[in-house]
Specification:
25% of the residues lie in helices and 25% in strands. It is an alpha+beta fold. It has one domain. The protein has a ten-stranded mixed sheet with strand order 2-1-15-4-5-13-9-8-7-11, with helices on one face. Strands 3-16-14 form a three-stranded antiparallel sheet. A three-stranded antiparallel sheet has the order 6-12-10, with no helix packed on it. It starts with a strand and ends with a strand. The relative contact order is 0.20.
Length: 330
């Protein structure tokens, strides 16, 4: 099976990813899918996701095993905000809160767009003349958003896909500041976000259950990059996306609603637990991605399953939540 590499933005090193459950995902999205659509559909259903989540993440563990697992996954225990000695399950680890105000500092500047998560990122564009044009690979815009009035606003815009893996911090933070003008949930399947799964079925992110938040940033205190669609997408073993916006740290979390102002870099939601994906979509000619992200994401000499599967250079960049990834276009 081909290896899958990404660039760690901080170290500038290319790293081979050890994909969890890779053999199972490869089997599920090849042989089972080809030979039995019934079994395949069952495996990617809500019921199967709940069962997998229960057996993998809800088992009681000793304190030693909790600490051992954190070390094995490369989780920095110093970052954790909660008292991790009280953790009893893997779910507790995946829903951990961190001292992001210390360990994920956010750059100053109203015009800056930040990463919504600790994740592996790919920038893209709907514009055919763009050097980062990607058409209908990860999702189809119409299917992803469903509402025609929003689809029409993002035609020829830019977007970024952020893939969260199980060891990552699983809170999403707002990538921009602005007013929520719509938020809605779309039911769907629970396909894996493993790169093999992504290249094996057509536009998988358009098929999964997701929450869409439309943010108007062209207001006082906003990032002023037009409308932004922030799409939170479940995956296999992710049973829920809980909206838990906090103005200060993790204090007084509450679901956001239409009319709320949300501040860039603040916690917005949390996945429960496993792997998942965020997609952030911008209107045409309102932002520019950082140059290093653009350069590394289109390198052709790096082993990436996306590059092989889609037949175009596509390399993921590992970024951290609240880190700059783009800025307002002047």
């Amino acid at each position: 099976m081909e290896k899958h590499c990404y660039l760690d933005r901080r170290s500038k090193r290319f790293i081979e990813e050890k994909l969890i459950g890779d053999n199972f995902i490869n089997f599920l999205y090849s042989r089972i899918r080809e030979k039995s659509s019934t079994i395949f559909n069952a495996a990617t259903s809500k019921t199967s996701t709940k069962l997998l989540k229960y057996f993998n993440y809800n088992k009681k563990l000793t304190r030693d095993k909790i600490v051992s697992y954190c070390k094995m996954m490369g989780i920095d225990m110093n970052e954790i905000y909660d008292d991790y000695t009280l953790y009893t399950t893997l779910q507790d680890i995946f829903e951990r809160r961190i001292k992001y105000w210390e360990y994920r500092p956010m750059p100053d500047g109203e015009e800056i767009v930040v990463s919504p998560a600790d994740a592996k990122m790919i920038p893209g564009s709907f514009k055919e003349e763009s050097a980062i044009f990607i058409k209908d690979k990860f999702f189809i815009l119409d299917d992803l958003l469903l509402k025609e009035k929003w689809v029409n606003r993002f035609v020829d815009g830019d977007f970024a896909v952020f893939r969260l893996t199980p060891e990552e911090y699983h809170y999403n933070h707002s990538p921009v500041s602005g007013k929520v003008i719509d938020i809605y949930e779309i039911e769907g399947a629970y396909h894996s976000c493993n790169p093999t799964a992504t290249i094996s079925i057509a536009t998988p992110l358009s098929l999964n259950r997701r929450i869409v938040t439309i943010i108007d940033t062209d207001i006082d205190g906003g990032t002023k990059v037009g409308l932004v669609a922030f799409v939170e997408i479940v995956a296999m073993m992710i049973g829920d996306i809980k909206q838990v916006y906090s103005v200060e740290r993790y204090d007084n979390p509450s679901p956001i609603k239409e009319g709320d102002f949300i501040k860039k870099g603040q916690p917005k939601s949390v996945y429960r637990p496993g792997s998942s994906t965020d997609v952030v979509i911008f209107e045409r000619d309102r932002i520019v991605f950082d140059e290093d992200i653009l350069a590394y994401s289109r390198k052709s000499d790096i082993s990436s399953r996306y590059s092989t599967g889609f037949n175009i250079p596509l390399v993921e960049i590992k970024v951290r939540v609240r880190e700059q990834v783009a800025r307002r276009k002047i």
